[in-house]
Amino acid sequence: MIKVAVCGALGKMGKEVVNAVEAADDMELVAKIDIAADDMYRTIEEAQRVEDIDILIDFTQPKSIYQNAQFCLNNNIKMIIGTTGLTDEQVENLRKLSNEKNTGCLIAPNFSTGAVLMMMFAKQAAKYFDNAEIIELHHNQKKDAPSGTSIKTAQMMAEVKPDFALNNSDEVETIEGARGGNSYSNIQIHSVRMPGYIASQEVIFGSSGQILTVRHDTMDRKCYMQGVLLAARHIYKNNDFVYGLENIM
After folding, report:
1. Which of 70, 86, 125, 180 is the most buried (most CB within 10 A)?
2. Rounded to an integer, what distance in angstroms lies between the CA atom of residue 16 and that of residue 34?
3. What are the CA-CA distances from residue 173 to residues 73, 139, 177 (Å)?
4. With 90 as the cut, is the pLDDT of residue 84 above it?
5. What is the mean pLDDT of the chain?
6. pLDDT per residue over 157-178, tens digit each?
7. Catalytic residue (choose from 138, 152, 161, 190)
8. CATH level 3 topology of 2-107+222-247
């Protein structure tokens, strides 16, 4: 049995992960961890002193995820990170630590298999268009902007082309930020925060005479659980560092 701890267990995603792990035939939920809890572990350190943990799945806050990951990897606890907000430098540091400690770590900006396919389709389409922008839409309680999914999508597209703003005119923003944020290969990312959304993203490609839109919408957080369990089973068997669920699909 894969012994799993869930950090952020009282959050919306954390609750879904707890239910998914408890329902899995090959997994055992050994610890629920949440800083706001009265009847469970409040820190990873507390849980680690008592429980035998193979994998910790983290859906917490951007401000705590980096320290959580460092603690786990330094204590030979394999790590699955669903919390977004890590910088490129932090991701690279965790890659080095994972390799140094020979302890598996998987970071996925999105665990929805449909969203990952959307990202893969966007990378494929990027070969054939010189102009592209990303609009990501989330609920208004999301802490970070732009989303980890949009950043990862832009990174994947940038792997195949250096510039997605071909022949754009010089722009003057009369309201600062109106054109979104300029990211990898000049891909503009626009973030919408609105009650009613869970998570949506569209990648818009344009060329003379045509527009292509690749879009994914999340209606229920249960859609992430297939990817979370896939990640747990992979990282249990392997000690590699993985950034992006598409690398194990």
Report:
1. 86
2. 14
3. 44, 26, 7
4. no
5. 96
6. 999 999 999 999 888 899 999 9
7. 138
8. Rossmann fold (3.40.50)
